[in-house]
């Protein structure tokens, strides 16, 4: 386990964005020098109502950097299931194995977003992929996809960094 919050953030960025050093650079920059990060990303942060350094700035930087690299889908709390699926399928981390999305054939898409995310998490999990949310304490779900084998690492690293990554669905292991 990483020794510092900075190390945990960098490890989390590497886990969620393999081969994309820009993600870790942005996250550690936000952690190391929040004022400079705020200045460099003022327009983007203004969209979130952030105009001064906040304790969650590095976590927000992670969410934004992952989204910029098509590794995170940020969906509204009341998003339609079809739109959630479209955004997840557009991610670079989208599972490509033949059975990854077979659960959709029988999924009830006429349920609340949170309930659908639990269904999606279970279905994707059965195919080897974890659906997780990087909680930014907002009315949206920043969603990421990781192999089931890395699910515990994701949750543990987020916790070590002082943040929350939640897993959707009923998964074993």
Automatic annotation (TrEMBL):
<feature type="domain" description="DUF6630">
    <location>
        <begin position="8"/>
        <end position="165"/>
    </location>
</feature>
<protein>
    <recommendedName>
        <fullName>DUF6630 domain-containing protein</fullName>
    </recommendedName>
</protein>
<dbReference type="Pfam" id="PF20335">
    <property type="entry name" value="DUF6630"/>
</dbReference>
<dbReference type="InterPro" id="IPR046582">
    <property type="entry name" value="DUF6630"/>
</dbReference>
